[in-house]
């Protein structure tokens, strides 16, 4: 995926500057936003590990009907938190946390195989300048303009490094997303304001790893690379939870 020219990308990275420093205290709250083509249960393994560590974890049930609606659902959960919070987004959830992450309760942002548009950017534009990823070729629209992954391809393209039965079960839970949401421009881009962390999925068939690396570098994020499919919260929950814990501690 061609995100920007090399010169423009480097200029954006160096012009962005350092994010606001994290506070010393460990955040005790974690809010997890899922991506498109799945539901909040995709975070269950990560949430379980974090709760065992003493974190208060909330998985957001975003409707996937529009960017505005998804952000509103996330803000509602953030408003209910007491104290510092780490806000985490997977895939499309990265767009959502970029909008909602300007909340004063948010200590840090964690992107997991996620889109991270800047102000004014849309996913439609970001994905238009190169050949579609293998997973995107399996995306189908319905008569109402909602998009979903062909169930026959889902396990392979979305979570190919999990047992087939687990991938098939996840496919049965997939939630379609409004195609119009991909044309909604980012208006906040909270990664300019908060310390940011990124988990790249090296074997991602939905969002090219090169694009993920671009987002991470542009944000000056603390970055880890996982030998994972797109759905790393499902197939690599320990590593994802560990990165979230680092964000909570400001490491």
TrEMBL record:
Coiled coil: none
UniProt entry keywords in alphabetical sequence: Hydrolase, Signal
All residue ranges annotated as the AB hydrolase-1 domain in the record: 30-242
Signal peptide interval: 1-24
Pfam family, one: Abhydrolase_6
One of the record's GO molecular function terms: hydrolase activity
Protein name: Hydrolase
């Amino acid at each position: 995926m061609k995100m920007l020219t090399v010169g423009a990308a480097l200029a954006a990275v160096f012009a962005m500057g350092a994010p606001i420093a994290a506070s010393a205290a460990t955040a005790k709250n974690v809010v997890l936003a899922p991506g498109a083509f799945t539901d909040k249960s995709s975070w269950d393994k990560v949430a379980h590990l974090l709760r065992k560590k003493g974190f208060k974890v909330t998985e957001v049930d975003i409707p996937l009907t529009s960017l505005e609606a998804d952000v509103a659902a996330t803000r509602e959960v953030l408003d209910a938190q007491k104290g510092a919070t780490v806000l985490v987004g997977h895939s499309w959830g990265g767009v959502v946390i970029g909008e909602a992450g300007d909340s004063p309760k948010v200590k840090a942002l964690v992107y997991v195989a996620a889109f991270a548009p800047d102000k004014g950017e849309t996913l439609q534009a970001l994905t238009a300048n190169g050949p579609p990823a293998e997973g995107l070729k399996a995306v189908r629209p319905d008569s109402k303009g909602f998009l979903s992954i062909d169930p026959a391809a889902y396990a392979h393209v979305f979570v190919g490094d999990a047992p087939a039965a687990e991938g098939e079960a996840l496919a049965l839970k997939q939630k379609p997303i409004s195609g119009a949401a991909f044309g909604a421009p980012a208006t906040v881009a909270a990664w300019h304001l908060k310390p940011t962390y990124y988990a790249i999925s090296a074997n991602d068939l939905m969002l090219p790893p090169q694009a993920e690396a671009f987002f991470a570098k542009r944000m000056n994020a603390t970055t880890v690379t996982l030998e994972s499919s797109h759905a790393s919260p499902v197939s690599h929950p320990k590593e994802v939870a560990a990165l979230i814990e680092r964000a909570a501690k400001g490491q």
